[in-house]
Amino acid sequence: MLVESRQVGLAVMVEKKRARVHWAGAPLIVLGLVFLATICGSLMLGRYDVPLNTWWSVLVAPEHSGIPGIVLLQVRLPRILAGILIGAGLSTSGAAYQGLFRNPMVSPDILGASAGAGFGAAAGILLGFGIVGIQCTSFAFGLAAVLLTCAAAGRLARSGDPILTLVLVGILVGSVFTALVSLAKYVADPYSKLPAITFWLMGSLAGIHVCDVRFALVPMLIGLVPLVLLRWNLNVLSFGEEEARALGAATGKLRWIIIFCATLLTASAVSVAGMVGWVGLVIPHLARMIVGPDYRVLLPASLLLGGTYMLLVDDLARSIYATEIPLGILTSLVGAPFFLYLLMRTRRGWA
Amino acid sequence: MRLEIERANFGYGGKPVVEDVSLSLDSGDVLCLLGANGSGKTTLFKAILGLLRLNGGRILVDGADTAAWPQRRLARTLAYVPQAHTPPFPFAVRDVVLMARTAHLGLFGSPSRRDAVIAEDAMETLGVSHLAHARYTEISSGERQLVLIARAMAQQSEFLIMDEPTSNLDFGNQVRVLRRVKELAGHKLGLLMTTHFPDHAFLCASTVAVLKAGKLLAMGRPEEVITQQQLECAYGVSVRVVEVEAGLRVCVPGMN
To answer: Where are the domains of chain B?
Structure first.
């Protein structure tokens, strides 16, 4: 009798746990709703008041909607779309890098990808390239920076802690590219190119046009889609190269696809909005705290949370002060203290 | 099925690590590999698993050379059980076991309901179902070892390659793992394992091989191979092999 009731109890427990597993998607639905709410809120926010009841007429007949239509569709919407793309892109690339390098402290900033992409874009502006040209140079130098970091860290890793080595080398490579950015600024024309590079580096979505969004969308999708499709393999890769291979993962191919996609995402984000730091570190972490480490849920969660976060930061940037505060300044002000908090919370140091 | 290592040779920078080692193992066998630290056991395992290329010799499965096999096919034939470790992220135990299904998925695939059932069965077999929702980073090392064996089961391979499955475990957990090893051989799996305890080979091995400095010192049934002379040669310490009762032998080290 006792045994029986225990078994029934166990069965109920198992059922409950099953039910919990089936609802692994629930946090995603919540994050999705928060994301949609943030989009609506951001559309409403601004100096010019567009009442909710006029939205419908704007959406139905944009060409006859006058000033509300221009404000909503040509000023706010492109900016919001760009914010979503950049936030989602940076967080997804951060999450992917963390799985690939088996290190929750890795991010596009720390691997030198952002600094490389930043220099690439500065060089593009200096040479008078258009948006596509800037994206190409940005990607090329972003990738070069990551490869340099990986190669140097691989050589050094035999004589020490591989994770610490990777992070240190990433900081070194990052500082080299930061110095090159300074060089680009130094030689730039102080009346036209220098302000362009400087303001762009601080990060902003202020000057976004619909065509910028369109140009950024293609590389973003090329980067995002494979990563989302490979999310199961990211789980396996976080067990390390040898174990992942023994489990049947094609690690060589995967490594290249993931580095390529994540760097493409970082570079296109940087080429649209400048240096918006720390998003790729903070958001995957936050997402992991909410949904756990399984990349099948973590990757979409990072994507949604990244989009939401970037919109909120941009809302702050355009509303706390009469003039806009550059995005990069705000993300660092929020991101750096959070990183410190993570370091204090992690019991095993860097790993 | 039959797994054969045929005259394996491997070295780093001209220094031989594995020299002319030949082993073979059939489904249902437990082959225990003994040898001192640095005798080439790990290198041999890596070569079998396709993680490093041999300088000479071949790894054969039913007579077919595995050198050209893609990693996926190799993983469907040979499953690896590493030593209990801690991954950087706190995955749920059931997800750790589910990772075994990677070899059966496409590049962009994700495990299906059927894969989940296979993983659940494997956990059931190893008696770790109650841990399914626990975090892998928070269970004991004995439990982790059993979970890793369950994962290898879920890989549905013909052979299990186990790297010191009893190291870092307390006495009770060592015995629990060895019992499972014996049961798995009954499931028609071929098991190749290394151990630092010759006693463990007496308890569960059908064949024992001894490596010394990269060379095969002896191979055969446990009571033929695990002798005072062989152990002293392999490990360089004095040992007595005592028969406690009929068919039960233990190794007792000499302390002077």
So the answer is: 2-253
